[in-house]
Amino acid sequence: MDLLQASVNDKYLALARTVRHYLMTRWLETERRQTELQSKAVAYLSAEFLLGRQLDNSLLATDLEEIAAESLQGLGIELDELRTVEVEPGLGNGGLGRLAACFIDSLATLDVPSIGYGIRYEYGIFKQTFVDGRQVEQPDNWLELGSPWEFPHPEAAVTVNFGGHTEKTADDDGREVSRWVPGWSVEGVPYNYMVPGYQNGRVNTLRLWSARATKAFDLQIFNAGDYTEAVRAQTFAENISKVLYPEDSTPQGKELRLQQQYFFVACSLRNFIEDVLPAGYDLHKLPERITFQLNDTHPVIAIPELMRILIDERGWNWDEAWDVTNQVFAYTCHTLLPEALEVWPTSLLEKLLPRHLEIIYRINKDFLARVRETYPGDEMRARHMSIIAESPERAVRMAYLATVTGSKVNGVAALHSQLLRDKVLKDFSDMEPEKFTNVTNGVTPRRFVRLANPGLSGLITEAIGDGWVTDLDRLSELEPLADDSGFLSRFREVKAANKARFADVMEARDGIRVDTGTMVDAMVKRLHEYKRQMLKVLHIVSLYEQVKSGALPIEKVTPRTFVFGAKAAPGYRMAKEIIALINAVGRTVNDDPAMQGRLTIVFPPNYNVTLAEKLIPAADLSEQISVAGKEASGTGNMKFALNGALTIGTDDGANVEIRELVGDENFFLFGMSEPEVERVVSAGYEPASFYDKNAALRRALDLIASGAFSDGRRGEFEPIVANLLEQDRFLVLADFQSYMDAQARVDTAYADQDAWTRSAVLNVARTGFFSSDRSMRDYLDRIWHAEPVSIDVSSMQG
Ligand code: 26W
């Protein structure tokens, strides 16, 4: 095809293939070296990898950006035009999925032998559109035009069994053994993705599994004329990796979800044991060779799967198998919401994975024996700690199975890990305290600073060199420049340019006009009541109400653009109501001439990684306002601070560590601490009392209930207001005044741009700790005990 006929996507594919070709030799060399050395590695098992676009990251990792731009220029092609056609693989919901993507980037950059294992969903996270301000989900057919970054390996397909029953037989030395007689099976086809380290020649692998029928097509049935029946097996099998479950907190307990979890776990263990390890490898040495990191409870079925392989297939006895299984798994918990901890009914496991259920029962029996030994006579404790919950229905508590079996259990921020020890998993921590540790989350500086914010990157590199890209603690060398007025004004120019770029994107993407002369106040994360988007709405509505009632002269209002980005799980009704309210308030406030454009609400649909990369560098204020004790960590908070936004937040998750590092004077803290929340809740929380005693709050809630944002239709948002007045499970009303006071402090601070910018520079200088490279080093020291292995690129051409 000659260039003239080529579409932009053709040109993009050509460039992508050129870059991947360059990486191919490094990929093969990494593989060769790993096979040669057989050194300890890390396998990251995750049901989600929110990768984002790949082209720019690959150009950065190979340092080919400039050459590519020039050679394309020579052909009259703009690199920028090509990068915009890339479809981002949305194979994740939010924090957990994006963290996995940051982690594998850091593992490659730190030269750690590692492999990511997950699912190649044909449809990723849904595309969000707004119809009359309400969320409407569209399927995410991201593979429509194919993906140049994936390499299918049907020759390495794995058969995965399901269903059937188990039968007791005797093995040749007469010992009673259980044998699984599966009912049906599918095939898992691996698709490999390159995970390039930053300019170090290493290219690790992300292996995502896609399901297909063992027998794609039944010709006899077809010839008998029953065409649908002939392909039924195929469609049935493909369903397993068809679509990502869009829930990010409340499991729906769907059978297909468990099928997905077992499917990718069984493929991954089989692949590692039979294809990655050398033939005849003695699995008793597995702990020296690998740690399987379990990214939340979603891959925990891997535990009975490994036991099954070692006992049923390798003929080991229980203790042999348990000894190895105990050492090779480690579990990371990412939540504090009790409802987010997955439990699988034993009835479903009996049907789908009967042999695994037997093994889980045995693990639990041995564990409860240890509990009774340690706490003789304390049956209540044994019942509490049992992996098997008896009510409301008999079910397996996956978090307990992971905690009992894993060598290590970690939370994702200091406060979160402490709450796991003190509350969520207290009994287990009391019994095995040495098993519990913390690794505070991090984000990759390559994507979220170097690529997303070239202006700031240039400024930093000019000041301290470019070592910070792989050693983010070096940002601390910027500290003295916080008092350098020249640097401050350059810093402000960069922020202003990022705002202009964001405004252009908003115009082009959604036809939304952003006034770059305003403070950009951003709240972007999944829509969930514990994250308290409603607190942000009450701030805006209260300001609006005060202006409309004349209590607040419009000229006293700091011009702000409130940027929201948030998807709601399709089944989460209250979350969808809140999205509708935000858009309704936006429509009313934005079009109200009385506001003279001083307050604007911008809510671009379909918030994703690509939009985050454009918004975060443009933000002045980062909203991290969850109720203390509910946000495990947060990672958006880190990205905003590293890009020079100031944080208004509660002492929750990693906000605590951000505030400790940047200093109280560079952080707008508000609200109750976790112990205070605990006290208020246990004392019996009366949300309506705050409505009664706080006039501004009452007027804001009344305005919402009045229909002012719904063309006078009173009932429109009644459910939201009623829920806040009656339950308010996440204490929005209780923290309202403290939040309003903090926002007033923000207005005052923003009026002094020099002081604000100084504070912003200090935020950048003091948050190098939040690099996912540092997180990986912590995992290596505390959990994985694997060593980096460098790839010598000198021998490689090009
Ligand atoms: C089964 C439904 C489901 C799906 C996903 C339940 C829970 C999840 C995830 C654990 C939710 C999640 O993304 N948690 C977020 O993980 C981030 C990375 O550690 C943290 O920074 C966030 O605080 C946490 O909410």
UniProtKB/TrEMBL annotation:
In Pfam terms, one family for this protein is: Phosphorylase
Q: Where does the chain cross the membrane?
A: none
List, separated by semicolons, the cofactors it needs. pyridoxal 5'-phosphate
Q: Which UniProt keywords apply?
A: Carbohydrate metabolism, Glycosyltransferase, Pyridoxal phosphate, Transferase
Catalyzed chemical reaction(s): [(1->4)-alpha-D-glucosyl](n) + phosphate = [(1->4)-alpha-D-glucosyl](n-1) + alpha-D-glucose 1-phosphate
Reading the lineage from the top rank, the first entry is Bacteria
The question of whether Glycosyltransferase is a record keyword is answered with: yes
Q: Coiled-coil regions in this chain?
A: none
Q: Would I find Glycosyltransferase among this entry's keywords?
A: yes
Provide the family line. Belongs to the glycogen phosphorylase family.
Function of the protein? Allosteric enzyme that catalyzes the rate-limiting step in glycogen catabolism, the phosphorolytic cleavage of glycogen to produce glucose-1-phosphate, and plays a central role in maintaining cellular and organismal glucose homeostasis.
Q: What is this protein called?
A: Alpha-1,4 glucan phosphorylase
